[in-house]
Amino acid sequence: MRLVSCEIGGFGKISAYSHTFREGLNAFCEDNGWGKTTFSVFVKAMFYGMEYSRKQGLSEREHYRPWDGGVYGGSLVFEVGGRRYRVERTFGKKDKDDTFALYDDVTGKPSEDFGVNLGEEIFEVDRDSFGKSTFIPQEGLETTMTDSINAKMGDLSTAKDDINNFDRAVKAIDEARKNYTRRSKTNTGKLEIMKRQMRECNELLEQQEAMNKGYEERTELLEQRKRSLQELEGKKAGLAEQIRMLSRQEQSFGQYREKKRSLERHLADSAGLDAFFAAGIPKEDELKDMENLERRMHVARREIEVKQEGLPPQEEIERLEMLFASGVPEEADLSQWNLWAGRLKELRVAGESHKLSEDMKAHLQEMSSFFERKLPQEEEMAAAEERVTELIKLEGRADDAKTRYQTLLLQRDQMERSRAGKGGLSGLIVCLFLCIALAGGGIAFRTLAADSAYSLPLQIVCFGGALLILSLGCWSFLRSKGAARKAAEELERQVEEAREALERCENLREEQRASCKAFLSDFLLPPLDNMQQMVHEVRKNLDLYNSLRQEERKSEQEVSGTLEELADLQLRLYTALAPFAEVYHIDLYHEPQEEEVLRRLQRDRTVFENYRKDYSEMLSRTEENREMEESLQAFLGRFPTESGEAAEQLKEIRSKYDRRFALAREIRELKGELSRFEQEHQIDESRGSVEELQKQQDELDAEVAELNRTIAQDRENLSAMAEELERFEEAQTRREQLTEDIEAAQQRVKLLENTARCLQMARDSFLSRYMKPLQEGLEKYRSRIDRNAADELASAQMTLDMDLSVHISYLGNSRESDYLSAGYRNLIAFCSRLALLDVLYQKEQPV
């Protein structure tokens, strides 16, 4: 593996910097503060990324964020396995904002040989182990053993199932043990919780005897109070009988007193309302205006809340203001820039292929997606248009048939009402009256003028006329009934025919509609007003699709664009877009993403314009609402309301306003009734025997109510105590269960402790395999670097323990490396690092 070159866009104080690595050792001899440590961290970040830390304080990600606020990241070219790659990374505020890309540096195409965990796949160690082995920071020469180093040294890095994750296992076991034994107040262990619950059960069971005694005492007290209640009920019944007897005598005077008391109460209430309206009684129109004003204020507040919720976040607003600091581009400018961008794209691909413009390709792609399920032929399209036209005609015919059907139903109802009202009896009744009159005349001639010579002819005329009129009346009545029945039958036949015609039209319409829906179901259409518009939309899209396909075939035969036009157009467009691309962190001259810039600019312009409009409207509505609130508060300030909300205050004012006028009316009525009663009866105010008895009855009622309340409270207390007694039984059962659970938990804790000891023994046994190569490497590099060591240090033996800590053995005594000077301690740590690298990378041998 070899580093070839790197480019740093922005990393710490280093920006726009490139470097090519030479064969062998690369030394950076720069002044303090140049960024040598920053450069080394950049190389590590290209392989392992930036670690995201949730700890408070300055994290590594924030420490190396570019000072100028530019692009945070860069690229690194390296060789491994005989191939050359280029890795590109950028870093955001969080790890989810980071980007990663790997390319074959020879072909320039993306590579999938390695993933985002590039360092782990190449060096076969994780980030922490890389920092404690291959990567040697300025103030971190000393190293320690990690799981990844352990696995790499044991040649287990390629077998994931066999990696010895000792630290993780020990931590998991220790965490499992703490889950039982932890005594923290915020996160208590299971065993401690069970012990605490056991103590609570014991404390609760100690109270059982006292609780049983208290339950018996309260039961006896309840029985005593029940007996007292029975005695009071007896007294109350006797007193009620006395009151009933006296009330018969004083019934009329009792009504008078009751009305008088009502009058006094009404007067007191009226005085309170007069005090409430001391500042003046509002007019009905004024009160209605204030109620309408409050409703308008509520609507305005809701509109302001909706506007405020629709505003972008503050960070987005600041970004937009910075983006449009020099002004918002006009729609014409954006259209022109979009045209230039489209032309640029056409010119770039002119020599390679003859493709459609981006807009046309987008339209073609859109139309291809639209006709993805089915591309209708011209005959099928024409048939669909004919069906939808026929559907429109059928809908018109159905409406006409429905109108005719409803008209006939109305005529039928009118005919039935007409027949029910008249019934043809009026003519018959007239005929009967005439018959009776003529018959009466004939009888009169027969009885009164029987001897007259004209009596018999007149009798014949009268009786014959009566018979003739009666016959004609019956014949006319029967004839009119028959004609009405025939007319009704004819109208009923027309109604039935109209109904059948309406059903046929609706059935045909539904068939045509189903056919149109079946045709339209193959296309993704937006909701439109009717099917004719949908079919028209399909026709329009089909024509556009055919036109685009023809244009696509035509464009393949054309060649356009020149380099001179490309350069001039690119210069003009990039000059116009440069201020916006800088805010988007896009370098147009290295990354030709003018369409992305324009897309973002168009979107941000719309968002910014909407924000300014909504914000202005929100301020206007807020000012209007403030003025309305001042008017409303000025009105509400005139009345001593109790509620806090304006709506509640208005409701209270309205209630008291209506109550005041109702009381005035009732007071007038009561005064009139009392005045009339006083004029009709002799009022004796000294009569008070019934009132005294009622007062005694009220006192008894109060005692009975108090005693009932006390009895109810005692019953509730007894019920609660019964529940408490049930808790004692539950506590006894719970204590038995807790005893078993505590014993099982203690056995579990003991098992976890034994497991941890066995893991430690296994780790020590595993690590002892490769301690000898590490020890030999330490002595080798120490002898090479420190050739002129003092005699006492030369004879001292340096050893490494299983945690890669250095110990000194001199004259039979063992010391920690802290006894050495800082410089010599760093030398020994550096030698141990080199020895560790030899063991980790025996094939590569980087040192």
Describe it.
The structure is a single chain. The chain contains 24 helices and 8 strands. It is of the alpha+beta class and 847 residues long. Among the domains are: 122 residues, P-loop containing nucleotide triphosphate hydrolases (Rossmann fold, 3-Layer(aba) Sandwich); 135 residues, no CATH class; 129 residues. It has a 5-stranded antiparallel sheet, with helices on one face. The longest helix is centred in the last third of the chain and has 79 residues. About 1% of the residues have low confidence. Keywords: Coiled coil, Membrane, Transmembrane, Transmembrane helix. This is Rad50/SbcC-type AAA domain-containing protein. It comes from Candidatus Pullilachnospira gallistercoris.
List the helices and strands and how they pair.
Elements: E1 2-11, E2 14-20, H1 36-48, H2 60-63, E3 73-80, E4 83-90, E5 99-104, H3 118-123, H4 127-131, H5 147-153, H6 166-181, H7 190-206, H8 208-249, H9 251-276, H10 284-310, H11 314-323, H12 331-348, H13 358-370, H14 378-422, H15 425-448, H16 455-520, H17 531-555, H18 563-583, H19 594-636, H20 646-680, H21 689-767, H22 771-785, H23 791-795, E6 797-800, E7 806-810, E8 813-816, H24 822-840
Antiparallel strand pairs: 1-2, 1-3, 3-4, 4-5, 6-7, 7-8
